[in-house]
Amino acid sequence: MGLLYPSFLYALAAIAIPVILHLAQLRKARRVEFSNVKFIKASKDITASQRNLKELLILLCRILFVIFLVLAFAQPFIPASESFLPADTSQVGIVVDNSYSMQNTREKENEPLLSGAVGQAQTIIDLFPASATFKISTASGAGTAAMVEGNATNAFLQGIDFSSNKNLPFSGGNTASEQLFIISDFQKSTFQPQSLAALDSTRQVHLVPLKGAGTANITIDSVYLDDEFIRPAGDNVLHIRLYNAGDETVEDCAVKLVVNDNQLASLSLDLPPRQVTETSLNFSLISKGISKAYVLVEDYPVEFDNTHYFVMAPSRNIDIVEISDAASSPLQRLYRNEAFFRPQLYQQGNLDYARASSANIVILNAVSTISSGVASTLAGFVKGGGTLVVIPAEKADNASYSALFGNLNIPANITATTGEGAKTALAVPDPNSPFFKSIFSNYDPKMQMPAATRKLVWSRAADDILKFRGGTPFLSRFERGSGQVYLMASPLEDAYNELQNHALFVPVMYKMAISSYKQEQQLAYTLDENTTVTIPVATPARREGIYKLVQDSLEYIPEQQVRGGRLLFSVPPTIDKAGFYDLRLNDSTLTTLAFNFDKEESLLEQYSPEELRSFVPEKLRNVHVYKYGDAFSVKGEFEKRFFGVKLWKYCLILCLIFLLAEIALIRFL
């Protein structure tokens, strides 16, 4: 133990005062005369030994009062276990986690973790001299720090709000302070334990974990449509995936679908603990333009992930290019019955290669001999993400077809079968197949199926859509990179194939065309600096300018580049609010995008102080992890370690105790 002001010990000479008073009281009893006996009071008999003991106890209390009063001015202390001398101009770094997981309430307290973090920060500030400068960093300002002095710290801390940024600046905003405090819930889904090994070893780092009340939270994991092809005034099915991160079942969780500020559907679900629950809602779009929609759940206290925004843009027309030897085709009449199909028939000799390369789907129908130019173009079209349908001709040239299939790496070839061969009936399709989903309103397993004769044979397809009754594929799909190829075993001739006269023909041909459509714009994007958005844009010279994301009065300019008629940009890190943003070029709005928070923040499991200590390498003795507790416990532990234990307060308390003891001895003994 040491004394901060040892010169005050000379004041211990004041102990002589109570000793002198005690000796002065050791005198003979005085004679007291009374004018009337009625003033004589009854007295208690007290022995000399009792009187002496009482006086000695009073003397002891007075001596101890003086001793501890002197020690209080001398300020005794227990030296710190680690040397640290705070300078008058010291700089202290404080990192306050303000990510959305800090909306969780503190254990046994009805306040957000962020409020607890602000309270801890203020307690830490009170430990240092008033002249100290503080560099306060938050997750929303990762890599930067605000310089705050003395009286301004409280106002700055109270102004901290939640942020979508989940990365803590472990450098403390590049501060050169000797002490760095990191106050966080240390969430398992976002905190990287390896970041502790990279901490600076030249300064003291203090990890102050805050314990949440629990992990209970409901989040909307994702949404997707049954069909990417969105048709206004048509029936649509939205699939919703909900995740219950808690340990208990949530009953009657309300789920609502709102489109263009109108609630279109709602339901209640029971959500098992730690599981993903998927449900679906049927709805119909009325608007022909872009529809702003969101799914809403009711959950407390973590509310930032209760809403999932998404945008439904009507699909563009599907461009269909048919290549055939015939001057007319029944497929042209078939596709022209629907307004969203744009079919065009070409013969090989007058094929518009630019139109074919930009089409959604190319149908090679009844072409006897495929030229090398067409084969090369179709192979490049598939590799670029297009959809190709191959329907063989009655008199197909095996060599040219083999060359095409060789370019596509498909094991298929033409047979010598003629229309005079026996036809084989097709098997009833599987109603659970994704291809036939939503096609059958009333499925009949005994339906009459058409028959066909094989002209084209293959093996090892990704998906056999229709089969002959013997199990041989009739219509199959092959995946080739980002594109796909459909093969039909028989020509569309009555001598070979009865499908064109069957009720399945129209939905099958429509489904293949619709499957070729790829939604250029996703339903929603994640607010993450690693998210890259790709949007097709027209790029005439007259429309040069900067693309901006606009929400109300806020404008954000992302890093951007235009390549091949497509705009690529990354999400600006300054965007920290989920919702709808207009993509604008100059004064023109090109489209509307929806952004949602990263789902990692919705998982509230935390690392305990013991786990955090296990992540710190043994060589880093400058990293200190505090236990869960209130601000007073953290303050006391820090003072004990770096400032030592100051005992002057305890001396004052003992002074009061001995003063009260003296009063009690005089009054009651």
Class of secondary structure makeup: alpha/beta
| CATH fold naming of the largest domain | Rossmann fold
The average pLDDT is 85
Q: Choose one word for the global shape.
A: elongated
Number of H- or I-type helical stretches = 13
Please characterize this protein's 3D structure:
The chain has 669 residues and is α/β, with parallel strands linked by helices. The protein has 5 domains: 2-79, no CATH class; 91-214 and 604-643, von Willebrand factor, type A domain (Rossmann fold, 3-Layer(aba) Sandwich); 218-315, Immunoglobulins (Immunoglobulin-like), CATH 2.60.40.10; 318-515, Rossmann fold (3-Layer(aba) Sandwich), CATH 3.40.50.880; 525-594. The chain is built from 13 helices and 35 strands. The strands form 9 sheets. Strands 16-15-17-18-25-24-23 form a 7-stranded mixed β-sheet. Strands 5-4-3-6-7-34 form a 6-stranded mixed β-sheet, sandwiched between helices. Strands 26-33-32-28-29 form a 5-stranded mixed β-sheet, with no helix packed on it. Strand 4 (133-138) and strand 5 (146-149) form a beta hairpin. Helix 2 (48-74) runs antiparallel to helix 13 and helix 3 packs parallel to helix 12.
Question: What characteristics describe this protein?
Answer:
669 residues, alpha/beta, Rossmann fold, Immunoglobulin-like, 6-stranded mixed beta sheet, 13 helices
Structure summary:
About 20% of the residues lie in helices and about 30% in strands. By secondary structure, the chain is an alpha/beta fold.
Sequence-ordered SSE layout with sheet pairings:
Layout lengths: L1 E2 L12 H9 L23 H27 L1 E3 L12 E6 L16 H14 L6 E6 L7 E4 L2 H7 L20 E6 L9 H4 L6 E6 L8 E8 L9 E10 L5 E10 L2 E10 L3 E10 L6 E7 L9 E6 L5 E7 L5 H6 L5 E6 L6 H6 L2 E5 L6 H12 L3 E5 L6 H11 L3 E3 L9 E2 L25 E2 L3 E3 L4 E5 L5 E8 L2 E6 L16 H11 L9 E2 L5 E5 L10 E5 L2 E3 L3 E4 L2 E5 L8 E7 L2 E9 L12 H7 L7 E3 L5 H13 L1 E2 L1 H21 L1
Parallel strand pairs: 3-4, 3-6, 6-7, 7-34, 15-16, 15-17, 17-18, 18-25, 26-33
Antiparallel strand pairs: 1-2, 2-35, 4-5, 8-9, 9-12, 10-11, 10-13, 13-14, 19-22, 20-21, 23-24, 24-25, 27-31, 28-29, 28-32, 30-31, 32-33
Helix pairs in contact: 1-2, 2-13, 3-4, 3-12, 8-9
